[in-house]
Structures
1.
Amino acid sequence: MKRIILFSCLCIALATVSAQDSTLARVFIKNLASKEFHGRGGAFNGDSIAASYIAEKLSLFGAKPLADDYLQHYSFRTFKMEGDFSISLAGKVLEPGVDFSVHAMSKDFHGKVDILYFDAEKITDPDAVQQFCDKNRKKLSKSFLCIDKGNEKDLSKKALRTINQLKRENIFGVAGYLIGVESISAMSIPANAQQLDHSLFFVRSEMLAKQPKTAEIKYDSKLVIHRTQNVVAYVPGTERPDSMIVFMAHYDHVGQVGTVVYPGAHDNASGTAAVMDMARHFAHHPAKYTTVFLFFSGEESGLMGSKYFSEHPLIDLYNVKMMVNIDLFCGGDDGIIVFNAEADDTKALFEKMKQVNEKHGYVKDIEPRKNSANSDHYYFVERGCPAIFILTKGGAYGGYHSPTDTCEGCAINKYNDVWNLIMETLGL
């Protein structure tokens, strides 16, 4: 880790006269996605470690703090899963994040437990459910129930809806559930949610094919008030300092579950690296407008950091000319997607972006989308700020909310082109 940071400092020293620097951005992505940052979530205070790293670099660049030590503190309630995390089925140890995952609100569980089985399609038949419960009444509260969805296309929509209700309601009264799935889906950890009164795990159907009779489960989860922070900085404008261009990215990710790290290189160490690179550039080449750099935590838990900043702004939102949110910034071989592209206060900018791209051919395609509550621009749009959200499409990047989203799995060969497209469109 120390060697990586020293290399980062060397790159910063060499890069102060350049515009964009994809080599430096790669260093930032590698650091932020490393194990030392614990996936930049609430567990093991990974987001605070990342915030300190970003703030240190902003200070080194010469960007000015918007808050003490560049940090805007706030809190929200969330889950931390810092203890054991393992499942063995009939003695076979499963690989976390690959063979199984856990619902974030799941109740913790330690010990050996019997497994009962119920046909997924029969879950919509009240008589079948009642007969099963009557037959196993003495076992239910001490057992885990396995319901294998397998290939979901083979199940009715009603059956899938009923199985999904198990995420909220323990309709069988068991200690927990093992839901068989074709593949392990993305992991998320919500904020301000209540812990379930039962455990809920997702297991690849292949691991359940022989219907093991017992499971050994170790899983810890705590519902806590998590103190976190946004990282905030600015560079004063040279001609019109009261007008602002705002660049933003969320630096948090899923975090770490037990020993499993979700690195979040694409989502969103990549966008964070780009905004850090922008802060470095404008600190040495100030624009005529003030440039503001916002790094939000809590995005993965429901846009918590951007919501807090929008409600407790450290800048005059009325004076914002444009906000650019950057999320999922690796790849880009097929172009970019721009959310909130055709609103009354962003349409002219989007048309200019298309014109710039037609002239220079920076990206293959620019796809407009309507506004959506899918990233940190959302609450600012709700408050009347002109804001767009840019993400790349196509090319190489890690799996979404997966342990496979590593720096090594990400390409940034379109980084300079997308940077130039953004800057020329904004006239910077």
2.
Amino acid sequence: MAVNLQEDDMNALKMAAIALMVAGALALAYGGFSYTKDTSAVKLGPIELSVKEKETINVPVWAGIGAVLAGGLMLVFGTRKG
């Protein structure tokens, strides 16, 4: 049973293209994402006060559109043989 490396590369390229398109679509739909970061505010002996900060990262519309287009181009032109 021979392994076709070119076919494996094509499958990896298709997966990367689809992931890029999904990420771009999510960026367009939500416009960004947020996460919570724990920081140590004060440490006084055995007592430690911590603060949870909510950080928000906005994804520009042009980046979402670019990701969808780049994924689409990868999918179309990357799968052509010859």
3.
Amino acid sequence: MEQEVLDKLIEKTAAALGVDKSELSPETQIKSMGLKSLELAAIISSFEEEYDCYIKYTDLMHAETIGEAAAVISKMV
């Protein structure tokens, strides 16, 4: 499940940033991406809708990389 979430997170993040998903990896630092909080909220919301779950935004604040964020999300879905 974590790999599925990671793949989707990379895809959704790349779309939000307008970059090719090959530019992102599990090691990509979240702070370096320039992702706005509204964009992050939309990504979280899409996971909540797809998996019918609730993801606490504050739990993701501690994730430093896309891989860490995917691990947090996969525990909640």
4.
Amino acid sequence: MDETTRPPERDQSHSREPSNAPDTRPRLSTTNPATGQPGQSYEGHSRDEAIAIAQAVRGAFEEWRRTSFAERAALMKRAAEVLRRRKDEFAELMTAEMGKLLKDGRAEAEKCAFNCDHFAENAERYLAREPVDLAGSKAFVTYNPLGVVLAVMPWNFPFWQAFRFAAPGLMAGNAAVLKHASNVPGCALAIESVFREAGFPEDLFRTVLIPGRDVQALIENPAIAAVTLTGSVEAGRQVAGAAGAVLKKSVLELGGSDAYLVLEDAEIEKAARVCAAARMVNGGQSCIAGKRFIAIAPVREAFERALVEAMRSYTMGDPRDEATKLGPMQSVKARDDIHAQVQESVHKGARLLLGGEVPDQPGAWYPATVLSGVQPGMPAYDEEVFGPVAAIIEAADEAEAIRIANGSQFGLGSGVLTEDLVRGERIAAEDLEAGLSFVNGNVRSDPRMPFGGVKDSGYGRECSHFGIREFTNIKSVVVER
């Protein structure tokens, strides 16, 4: 993979290198985004070693698929316990490798534990056989595991993204190989250690530390049954193409440019607080962060003022300080890409209301930024800006606001700010082209609700009973009497 390609949001890991590229062990080195100082360095796996690991995982699957839901649930509950007991350690690791606020890292570990508990408690119900009335014959639908799922995961939520696929996948009877983003190798190994410590079979969940160029070889190997990716649109196309060429199932969660509609009947101060929180989740480095704020003309100026004040409160600071609301970006390059998008948007006519300047200090810092007067042809309008930059777009009325929101190539999350809940529900449920729509709240994932997008935001669903069934063989069984 070419990990320098824009957009900077996640591991861009699937461009092919010549087939005669040497099969060597890579060295994965980390950099502290807050200081720019070198961090830990890890020896990775060669392509052949990664394939051998996948084959070992396939061997573990053959026994695991025969275990009962009760056996799986007991181990998954232990994984939740490990996550809670080691959450401070894991939060420190996330902060060191990708700059996440320490308090957010602890919350992420807790969310992963909740996810493990949820699927431990609900997988058997989600995957229960479903009887079908065929007038005399016994008939039912059953859900069987597919095998080994290869997960190609991003750095921005290094634990949550992995556990979001792993907990339902293992509870469904599958096994897993994790190829994580190259800047969070410590997190990748720590995730494997959670399952080991919880008592899962040794080879049931394995991490491979490989460059992106080796991902296709894994997808093509018979040991892998399916693949799931969270990443850029281009990475998704390449993974989907590789999986499709060998007729293997894939689930893709790709980019987003979530639109929030601020209607004329919204309570403006409250709306601005919701929009700021939506934009600034994880320092703006989230696929489901609010990015485009479409305000109806009569309230646009008031919303501008309120959003600037709400965003101003997100001051940069030490990610280990509990009072900090905005830490560094994941890398200097990612920061520079964000700044280039802001500068080009301003050059093309956007008004800079807040931020927009690179601070003179070491590390990957970028301030909370607000642009208004954003129009088509500007990066802030057309592209996913993966950082703390809010783009305000004016619409004449509700119909135009919906048209602008749906005009994006993306369709992951969306929001509606209004005091008329019936109106908001109608727009969210019926009009917005997105996998998730929230009224008067910021978009977020939850194990109890399906998660995923449409259009260039990908396909398939994670979480809930929809997610756990994605990597199962949905089999029809008929027994003639």
